Amino acid sequence: MAYSPAVASKAFCYILSCVILMTVFACASAPRPNPALQSYVLDYDTPVDPSLQASLQSIDAELRARYGMTEEQTAIGVLDLDHLRLAMLRPDSIQYAASVAKIGILLAYFQLHPDAATHLDPQTRHELGMMIKISSNEMAAKYSRQLGLREIQQVLNSYGFYDAAHGGGIWMGKHYGPGSERIGDPVANHSHAATVRQLLRYYLMLEQGKLVSPAASRTMREIFASPDIPHEDLKFTKALSGRNLQILRKSGTWEDWLHDTADVTGPGRHYILIGLTHHPKGDEYLGDLAIAVDDLMIKAAQ
Q1: What is the pLDDT of residues 78-92, one digit of tens each?
Q2: CATH number of the domain residue 200 falls in
Q3: What pTM value is reported for the model?
Q4: Could you list the residue range(s) of the whole structural domain that residue 25 is in?
C-alpha cells in the first residue's frame, strides 16, 4: 500500500487519543502525590480540626432538625486529604453496616491472593466491581464463600479495623445470600457492622497504598472506579452529580439503615466522606450532607 499522509495523520491522532484515555484512567485510579498524606495516621488519639469539626456539627444539627432525626441516628466523618483536616461525629458508635461491609471482602480477596494485585483476570475484576459499585449480593456471596467468613474477619482484624475495646469497627459476619452461617460482632452482635472511624481509616489506607501493597491498593481503587459499571444513582452520587467529581464509594441499604462512604476527588479538593444513618429519611440526609460538605471543601480551596 502506498504511503498516504492523510492516513498516517489519522493513525497518529487515533494513537494519541488512546494514550490520552489511558492516561485519564491511570490518573483516576492512582492517588495524587502528597508526601504529608503518606505519614498521616488516623487512630483513637488523632485530633479533629476545630473549624471543620464546628462546621460538621452545624451541618449535622441542621439536617437532623430538617428530617426529624436524633443524634443517635447519625454518625458522620470527613477527612480532607489535601489539608489533613479531620472532623467526626460519633465516630466509634457501631452501626449495622448493610452492604458497606462488602469492602471487607474486597480487602480479604487481595490479602489472601497477593498475585491478584498485578495478575487479576478480567472476569474476577468485573465481578468484584459489581460487588462494590452496584452492590451485587450474588458476587459478594460468591467471594465470601470462597474466602470464608472467619478468614475475612481475621484480615480486617489484622489492620485494626475492628477493636471491641474501642466500640468495634468493620465486621463481616454473614454471607450476602441464603445460608444460616452467622457470626455476630462482639460489641453489638451485628452480622455486618461499621464505625465512622474505621471506615475513614480504610479509605485513608487505600489512598496511601497501605492495604496489602501499593500495587494491590491501586488495583482495588480501579475496582472501586470500574468505569464499565455505572454508579447507583442515589445518596452521595445522586446529590453530587454534575459537580465534575470522581467518586469511589460503597453504599449500604437495609430497611432504614441507610449509609454511604466515599473517596471524592474534584478540582481543588480531595476528601473522604462517611455517613451512617438509621432513619427512613437517611437517603435525603446523606444527599444534603454530601452537598454541604463538598461546598465546604470548595470554600477551603479558594
Answers
A1: 999 999 999 999 999
A2: 3.40.710.10
A3: 0.90
A4: 1-30
